[in-house]
Amino acid sequence: MDLSAYRFPLFLDLKGKKAVIVGGGKIALRRAGVLLSFGAEVTIIAPKCEAVPEGAFFYQRPYEKGDLAEAFLAVAATDCREVNQQVGQEAKATGILVSVADR
Q1: What's this model's pTM, rounded to 2 decimal places?
Q2: In this structure, what are the phi and psi dihedrals at residue 61, rounded to the nearest 5 degrees?
Q3: How far apart are CA 51 and CA 12, in angstroms?
Q4: Helix or strand holding residue 76 (H, E)
Q5: Residue 23's closest CA among 52, 66, 54?
Q6: Helices in 1-103 by DSSP H: which ranges?
Q7: Strand, coil or helix: what is 44?
Q8: Which of 17, 54, 87, 89 is the most exposed place for a label (fewest CB within 10 A)?
């Protein structure tokens, strides 16, 4: 049985943990809101952001390698698969939990 298509549900204590979201669209902001509601310290990195949620930090610029430093969790939610892939690769290479929202 090939289990590669299945995902394991995981429950984490996010209170005070850094979560970096790359992207500023609807999906990214929905993820930011959920993470904030669970107590994560949310940083959003995007050239533009529809509406920065209260309590989140926003850096208005494109993603750069190294942006995930000290993050516990990363979310790649841009409209560019290449950027999402870069975020995913950086997170995996540094042991950071990651969600890539383009698949």
Answers
A1: 0.90
A2: -170, 165
A3: 26
A4: strand 73-76
A5: 52
A6: 26-37, 81-94
A7: strand
A8: 54
